[in-house]
Amino acid sequence: MNSIQLLIGFIAVALQVIAVVFGVYQFGVSLFGFTRRSAQKYQAPKRRFAVLIPAHNEQRVIGSLLANLQKLDYPQELYDVFVIADNCVDDTAAVSRSYGVNVWERQSLTERGKGHAIRWMLKNLGNYSQRFDAIVMFDADNLVSANFLRVMNDHLCKGERVVQGYLDTKNPYDSWVSISMAISYWYTNRMWQLARRTLGLACALGGTGLCIDAALLQQIGWDGDTIAEDTEFGAKCVLAGINPVWSHEARVYDEKPVTIVASLRQRLRWMRGHFSCAEKYIWSLFRDGIKERSLAKVDAALYLFQPASFLLVFAASIFIVIQIGLFGRPDALVTAMNAVPNWVWYAANGAVLVEMLLAMVIDRVNWRGMLGIPLFPIFMLTWVPIIFFALITRHNQRWHHTVHTRAIPFQDMQRPH
Known about the structure:
Blueprint: H1 3-30, E1 49-55, H2 62-69, E2 79-86, H3 92-97, E3 102-106, H4 114-125, E4 134-137, E5 143-144, H5 148-157, E6 162-169, H6 176-199, E7 210-213, H7 214-220, H8 229-239, E8 245-254, H9 260-292, H10 295-327, H11 342-362, H12 376-381, H13 383-392, H14 410-413
Parallel strand pairs: 1-2, 1-4, 2-3, 6-8
Antiparallel strand pairs: 4-7, 5-8, 6-7
Helix pairs in contact: 1-10, 6-11, 8-9, 9-10, 9-13, 10-13
């Protein structure tokens, strides 16, 4: 056996082992997602909120959200809504004003996108007559559970400073793409996010349904230079010793793309931002985590690494194909390239499927959600080219708008779909 053959075999083994270690770790963490949540007991409303809604050409959907926000189970004198009409060429501002909320219009040829809009609005809030205890962020296409601010008030009263609400789906049954996205969120909400809440680890921030203590936001700043401003802010918080916490009781409903093309474009933007954040923060989180013996920081580094781990199995397969193509059928030693038996991969996929179904049952997802399971593996395969292309184009931080069209009254979300 020559040195090239040995090198290829070694690389294949290493990639497989890394992928398995990461998978075993995540599976172990996910088991804590089966925690039973106690009944919610609300504290008296104390905190004052500024609700920010960045909106780019969202006249078709923003009215549903603003009507929804008028009916929250929280004193209206304790929250103000601010719509940021960002580079709009439609009637987003006019529609928003008809609901009596604060509307700030912004135009910029160079600084375009959600992150810039929020940063601009935060600066303007400094000149606002009212002072706020916390900032809450929603996207214009969202709907929000009536208890959202009450739950956030509880978290803030407990001293928690960054809170991520449950990320649900507004239109899960519109297409096989939207139901696949919804299944992804139903699974990660419980088996990733709630599990980390139970273990005292940092949750991942999702860009909407986010509540941040105003003083902390002023301290850390919303000044990230990637298109994943939420992920970047979360990494900064963990580095500063502040773990974002997960709230399984407060829900925000997000509109998911219904076509594969729109979904590919959206997820490519997410992954480019994710890889840029990983490049900036993963080593600092891992180094500080080891030095300080902080599992939360190491876990946050592993979260940033997670998309890359998805490519490891694919890369290992490529190396095995190369080896067979160059050297023919591997002998006993080279067979070590297939270091992880096939039954391990089958068992891993089976375990994820079981957890996925259990998460949907426990969180009382409508039975129609189960119908998306057969097509879900196909959807997951579409992540491979997205992650690969995002990795090699991660420095392209151009923001692309996702068009939203589903104006659904919040009361319709309370009925079986």
